[in-house]
Amino acid sequence: MERDVIVACDFSSAEQLYGFLDKFTDRKPFVKIGMELFYAEGPQIVRETKARGHKIFLDLKLHDIPNTVKKTMAVVSRLDIDICNLHAAGATDMMKGAIEGLTREDGSRPLLVAVTQLTSTDQETLERDLLIKKPIDEVVMHYALTAKNAGLDGVVCSPLEAAKVHETCGKNFLTVTPGVRFADGDKGDQKRVMTPEQAKLAGSDFIVVGRPITAAQNPVAAYNRCIKEFIG
Ligand code: C5P
If you compute the radius of gyration of the chain from its CA atoms, what whole number of angstroms results? Predict the structure, then answer.
């Protein structure tokens, strides 16, 4: 799949989502549907968004025993999404189970990427709550490699980690990177950020951009600016 800008549609109702998507009459954005919208509206929101002509990253971050994740991914694969994800912390057997479940009878499947460590987890949290004493970037690279060895297509990570993930796991291993802000924009609660252009130079394959587009005065102009900076 081609490099692209994915718009994080963190809305709580179908009405808000469609009100937002209706503004895009030219290029239809790749849409990220997360837990908030999925739990509010159920799988129908995914079917309808797909029917409107959008590619979909279903961001449900699964993390459970291998059998449960395998069976859930089999249900997810019927939704005709383009990318979905899980937590690498669920470990190898869970990730392998996910791929099995996701693979349709004809052998096709959506791309599957793993969350390594959430960007809200820092070194202190890692040591204090999770009892992981290694440096966080070493942990992220290890989780990425474990995901790769389990057969996954890539990871969700900070754009600041994208180059190192490619070094460790190869250039074809996808990096999906949130934490993107315009140079003249508001950072909000994101701490470690890059502009779309910097993310492109760092080798991100997909940038996930939420509020800089969804909360912009002119969301279509903000989206087009992202496309121009990231894709050219
Ligand atoms: O609004 P903003 O651009 O910060 O949105 C970023 C999106 O990426 C949100 O949907 C957020 O949940 C998601 N995300 C993130 N950091 C991660 C994983 C996901 O910001 N490590």
Answer: 17
Question: Closest residue (by CA) to atom 3 of ligand 1?
Answer: 210
**Paired tokens of 202:** 């760092």
Question: Residue 209 belongs to what H/E stretch?
Answer: strand 206-209
pLDDT tens, 40-75? 999 999 999 999 999 999 999 999 999 999 999 999
Specify the amino acid at residue 135: P
Question: Ligand 1: does its nearest atom lie under 6 Å from the Cβ of 210?
Answer: yes
Q: What distance in Å separates the CA atoms of residue 168 and residue 30, rounded to the nearest whole number?
A: 27
Q: pLDDT per residue over 91-145, tens digit each?
A: 999 999 999 999 999 999 999 999 999 888 889 999 999 999 999 999 999 999 9
* pTM, to two decimals: 0.96
**DSSP assignments along 72-137, one per residue:** HHHHHHTT--SEEEEEGGGHHHHHHHHHHHH--TTS---EEEEE-S-TT--HHHHHHTT---S-HH
Check pocket membership of 116 for ligand 1, CB cut-off 6 A.
no
